[in-house]
Write a sequence for this structure.
């Protein structure tokens, strides 16, 4: 060997040793940097935790229930707004947590009418053996539940931030990038819009796979995997998100810890995962068994492509589909519009230095990681975007994952892929690329969002931050990757950090009885302890301690409903009640039904008599001078008029009555039902009771031309005219009505022809009021009625035309709409028989009208 060759070899050896030494130094520096960041963030999070839990803050929107349904007007959030759209939380999960506390943390809810099992999909602090796997709920047994509830949510937040930061560290991220991306994932639409209910699933996921990245023994990994996996599944059991996240975890492990997929190790980990699944199944066995046999959710199997065109674009333009105040710009609710969209993806795609493609591609490990992560994400994107049949997803259980519910898992994987690409290729910030990116952002706003939302503030903030970062990188104030992560995080926090409120949990679990609660107590006491009130959403009433008909039952209670409605067939009972259900009380129906997948409606009259109040039709000769109260028209069609409002009654509930004058005269009895209005005492300085709300249902036969409602306090006789809504005229007492001939006749014989029909609308008091139709063929002015009534009448009859638009429709235009009538007969008491004969005055044609079933025809004198 020549001297020259020897020098070359020595230089190579030296350079190799130097590279190894440099890498070792870099690792040590990175570890020291991580230790310093972890110490700082831990101190910050502990101090923040003290502040957060001391104020019992939470992300709950339960302030809506406290204010609008229970009258605690001063119990709203300390910051932000409660979100009605988050009803899964504030009318289900949080009330069931209240119920668990009220039930002394026992498994079966003894405070409920249905005595349901609380081992369900929602993670509740039931104190049985499952509490071992709910570490964020361990405080419930030791402190006021408000503090425990607050601690649970702060712990979930901390687990999320630290968990994803540590996960990105395993991928090679520096602390700035790791924590920046972790917060970036937290401030995404999908995470924030579902946080107050699905947050625990998001937060526990990284901790399930982090032990598998560590260098501890396989048995330590197995033990931690088992406990953390069961925690993840029990803290909130929702397979669509958990199945898709499990796939993301497997892809990450395959890319970064391929040694785990060696046969022996893989078998051990599969067995442990199976044991965790069996433990979860054992705990939730009754729930799973009952749910599997339901009409909804049952064993649903879905295919791909359950999303929309703008769904894909919102990955790169996160606020594309809603306004600043979270109002959707397309036909979907805000939660369903949430994606794991970040400007980070767009920034990395624009500034990736593609000139360096040979470096990552020549490194086998980096190349494999990019291929595995890219393939995994493309598989998920295909399921979310392409119209794939359900059998395609069966091997991965994706046939149980709606495409929109794969959002979070797909977003985590895309974030990892973009980070690895940026780390491998490097980034190149140039003026030209910045101009192109700006043009893309402005074009997306102009072409897609501007037609629905002309605000351009978000885009201008983006451009400002982009300029600042470009200037900072040029002056070498920070690294390009750090700057791009910062842009994405600032915009994400501005866009989504305002969604969830800071709601104190203290009034959720600690509330003095107010007027509204005392009213509910009185209603329940008058109804054998059962609270039967319409319009109480979800499980809120049971959460407040009431034995309420309105409730949420995650599993069906068929035996309970079979006893309540024995007249239903087995098929009807199964179709209506065998489902996850929000149980609604309503006066609109006489028979239970299920108008949508997760709703059961049951008739109000079946569960309450106290809520039905007097209402009667009256022909006013004069109206009360005083006006108060108000109502609005909820439904107005040819068959029903539904009015909701309040009246200024002063007496007790059972003396609340309504008097009604309506034109034209209606067919059928009105129904007046009490409706709780917690807003009334709040808005009237407690001058009007919450019990003064009402729902009035009036059967009608066509359009209503005028209406007067008068509230009546039965015992005192106090009458007040209610204010009509704009556009609905008051009744005109001086209106000339179209009166037609009617005479009393003593028949010797009756016509052979029978046609027409009438109903007895009222026989109370001194008036017999009949409404119906007759078989006249003559012009209107020749429509007459002949009457024979026993015992005799006590005054002249009043016969008025009543338009009946249904007559020509139902008789193929054989009977005109003007053949309807209203007949008022003064009587001295109950009648025993009646005959009505229609008379065409010009032709003398007479036809006997059909009597109602229970009204005898008159007996002719011989």
């Amino acid at each position: 060997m020549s001297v020259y060759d020897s020098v070359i070899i020595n230089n190579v050896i030296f350079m190799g040793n130097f590279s190894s030494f440099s890498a070792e130094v870099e690792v040590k520096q990175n570890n020291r940097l991580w230790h310093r960041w972890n110490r700082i963030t831990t101190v910050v999070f502990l101090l923040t935790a003290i502040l957060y839990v001391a104020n019992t803050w939470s992300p709950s929107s339960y302030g809506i229930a406290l204010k609008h349904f229970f009258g605690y007007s001063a119990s709203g959030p300390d910051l932000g707004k409660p979100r009605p759209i988050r009803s899964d939380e504030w009318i289900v999960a949080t009330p069931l947590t209240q119920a668990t506390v009220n039930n002394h943390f026992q498994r079966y809810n003894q405070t409920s009418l249905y005595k349901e099992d609380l081992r369900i999909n929602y993670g509740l602090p039931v104190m049985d053996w499952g509490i071992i796997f709910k570490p964020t709920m361990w405080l419930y047994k030791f402190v006021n539940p408000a503090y425990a509830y607050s601690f649970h949510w702060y712990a979930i937040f901390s687990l999320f931030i630290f968990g994803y930061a540590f996960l990105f560290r395993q991928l090679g991220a520096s602390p700035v990038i790791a924590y920046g991306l972790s917060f970036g994932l937290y401030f995404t639409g999908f995470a924030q819009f579902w946080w107050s209910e699905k947050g625990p699933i998001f937060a526990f996921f990284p901790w399930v796979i982090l032990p598998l990245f560590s260098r501890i023994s396989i048995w330590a990994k197995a033990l931690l995997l088992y406990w953390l996996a069961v925690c993840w599944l029990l803290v909130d059991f929702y397979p669509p998100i958990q199945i898709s996240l499990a796939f993301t975890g497997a892809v990450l492990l395959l890319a970064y810890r391929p040694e785990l997929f060696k046969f022996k190790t893989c078998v051990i980990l599969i067995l442990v995962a199976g044991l965790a699944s069996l433990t979860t199944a054992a705990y939730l066995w009754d729930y799973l068994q009952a749910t599997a046999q339901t009409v909804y959710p049952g064993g649903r199997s879905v295919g791909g492509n359950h999303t929309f065109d703008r769904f894909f674009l919102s990955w790169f333009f996160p606020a594309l589909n809603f306004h600043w105040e979270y109002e959707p710009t397309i036909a979907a609710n805000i939660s369903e519009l949430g994606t794991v969209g970040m400007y980070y993806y767009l920034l990395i795609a624009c500034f990736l230095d593609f000139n360096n493609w040979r470096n990552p591609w020549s490194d086998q490990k980096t190349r494999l990681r990019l291929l595995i992560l890219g393939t995994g994400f493309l598989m998920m994107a295909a399921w979310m975007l392409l119209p794939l049949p359900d059998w395609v997803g069966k091997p991965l259980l994706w046939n149980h994952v709606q495409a929109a519910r794969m959002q979070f898992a797909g977003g985590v994987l895309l974030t990892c892929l973009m980070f690895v690409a940026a780390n491998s290729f490097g980034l190149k910030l140039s003026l030209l690329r910045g101009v192109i990116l700006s043009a893309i952002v402005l074009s997306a706003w102009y072409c897609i969002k501007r037609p629905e939302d002309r605000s351009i503030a978000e885009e201008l903030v983006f451009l400002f931050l982009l300029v600042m970062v470009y200037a900072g990188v040029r002056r070498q104030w920070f690294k390009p990757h750090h700057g791009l992560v910062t842009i994405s995080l600032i915009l994400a926090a501005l866009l989504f950090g305002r969604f969830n409120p800071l709601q104190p949990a203290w009034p959720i679990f600690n509330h003095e009885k107010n007027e509204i609660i005392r009213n509910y107590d009185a209603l329940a006491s008058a109804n054998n302890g059962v609270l039967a009130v319409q319009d109480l959403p979800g499980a809120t009433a049971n959460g407040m301690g009431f034995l309420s008909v309105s409730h949420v039952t995650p599993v069906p209670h068929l035996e309970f409903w079979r006893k309540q409605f024995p007249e239903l067939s087995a098929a009807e009972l199964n179709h209506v009640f065998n489902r996850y259900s929000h149980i609604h009380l309503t006066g609109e129906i006489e028979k239970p039904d299920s108008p949508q997948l997760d709703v059961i409606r049951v008739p109000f009259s079946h569960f309450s008599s106290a809520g039905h109040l007097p209402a009667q039709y009256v022909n006013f000769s004069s109206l009360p001078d005083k006006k108060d109260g108000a109502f609005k028209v909820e439904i107005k069609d040819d068959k029903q008029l539904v009015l909701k409002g309040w009246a200024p009654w002063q007496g007790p509930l059972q003396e609340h009555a309504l008097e009604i004058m309506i034109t034209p005269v209606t067919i059928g009895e009105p129904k007046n039902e009490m409706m709780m209005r917690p807003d009334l005492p709040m808005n009237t300085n407690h001058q009007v009771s919450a019990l003064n709300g009402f729902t009035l249902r009036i059967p009608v036969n066509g359009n209503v031309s005028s209406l007067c409602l008068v509230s009546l306090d039965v015992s005192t006789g106090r009458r007040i005219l209610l204010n009509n809504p704009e556009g609905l005229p008051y009744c005109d007492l001086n209106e000339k009505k179209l009166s037609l001939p009617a005479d009393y006749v003593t028949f010797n014989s009756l016509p052979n022809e029978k046609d027409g029909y009438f109903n007895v609308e009222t026989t109370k008091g001194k008036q017999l009021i009949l409404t119906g139709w007759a078989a006249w063929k003559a012009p209107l002015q020749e429509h007459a009625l002949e009457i024979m009534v026993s015992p005799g009448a006590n005054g002249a009859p009043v016969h008025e035309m009543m338009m009946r638009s249904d007559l020509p429709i139902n008789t193929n235009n054989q009977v005109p709409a003007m053949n309807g009538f209203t007949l008022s007969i003064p009587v001295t008491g109950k009648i025993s028989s009646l005959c009505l004969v229609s008379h065409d005055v010009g032709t003398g044609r007479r036809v006997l009208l059909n009597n109602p079933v229970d009204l005898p025809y008159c007996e002719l004198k011989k």
Notes: The chain is about 45% helix and 15% strand. Residues 3-54 form the longest helix (52 residues). Residues 351 and 428 are 5 Å apart (CA to CA). The two ends are 149 Å apart (CA to CA).
